[in-house]
Amino acid sequence: MIRNLKRTLRRLSCQARSVFTPAADGPLICASIVRNEVDIIDVWVAHLSAIFDHVLIYNHLSSDGTRERLLELAKRYHNLEIRDYTEPGHHQSAVMTSAFLEVASHTSKGWMFFLDGDEFIFEKGRDELRRELSRYRAAITVRMRWVNVYPVALQSPIQAATEIEGWLEGPCQIHKLAVNLSRAETVTKIIQGNHGALFNRRAPFQKVHLDTIRILHMPIRTDAQIAAKVATGLASNAIATARNSNHSAHWKAMAGLKDLSDVQTHVYNYSNLNTTTGELLRVPPPAPSLSGRLCDHVVLGEKPPGV
């Protein structure tokens, strides 16, 4: 309760300061690192390309056709740049920090987002997103909360017309990060998971939690997909974060489950962990508060080739 009150006061204070902060309109940029997401890659790239001026995707040793499909999509979407990342470890923090520093070195205005291959900007198009971000131009970074969803019929591939259900509110308050490039000089590191940043000094409005921009998150699409994601993710994260047992805590907990068929419970509680034991908490989910086709909730732009 107190934490939420502090966040609300900080958000309101940032809005007030932003009125007197010069406008810093610039490009919307997104960076990501993906691995084996071919079942969702077409619709995800269509979404990112409709929202962002430049999309930078690192392919991390995909073996399911994701890399090949990304290269095909890059021929259609001219704002899409594909790079290979061939280290075995999932050094997401290092890769995203490098991408951020590269962008910040030549882009002094705009915003940079860091999204995974199962994350979409929820119910905001490019113009709406720009207008909302302009209300927080005094912020250094903003944090946007997950809206967890799942396909009603576990299916592959995910398409624009895929029926989804989920919850606008849930027990786990996971946030994703965007950096204000006009105030990026204090940001030194994007942390693992793209959930936050480190700074070289204290400054006002280093992290402002928004309630009007959310991230639609679809972590479970099929039984095979989530099982492979957990296994591959644990192996690559173990290489990258051997000294930090806190990373991949949710995947470690899921790896011990023998039954992943209760999709509603798993998605509703995704990353909802007991902070002492690391065990997954399985709060019974209420009736979904969100439903419809994926394209009813996210902007997709033009149809990808071959779809």
Question: What order do the helices and strands come in, and which of them pair?
Answer:
Blueprint: H1 2-19, E1 28-34, H2 41-51, E2 54-60, H3 66-76, E3 80-85, H4 92-106, E4 111-114, E5 119-122, H5 126-134, E6 141-151, E7 163-166, E8 175-180, E9 187-190, E10 197-199, E11 208-209, E12 214-217, H6 223-240, H7 249-255, H8 263-268, E13 290-293, H9 294-297
Parallel strand pairs: 1-2, 1-4, 2-3, 6-11, 6-12
Antiparallel strand pairs: 4-8, 5-12, 6-7, 6-8, 7-13, 9-10
Helix pairs in contact: 6-7
Task: Give the proportion of residues in helices.
Answer: 25-40%
CATH class of the largest domain: Alpha Beta
Unreliable runs: 303-307
CATH topology of the largest domain: Spore Coat Polysaccharide Biosynthesis Protein SpsA, Chain A
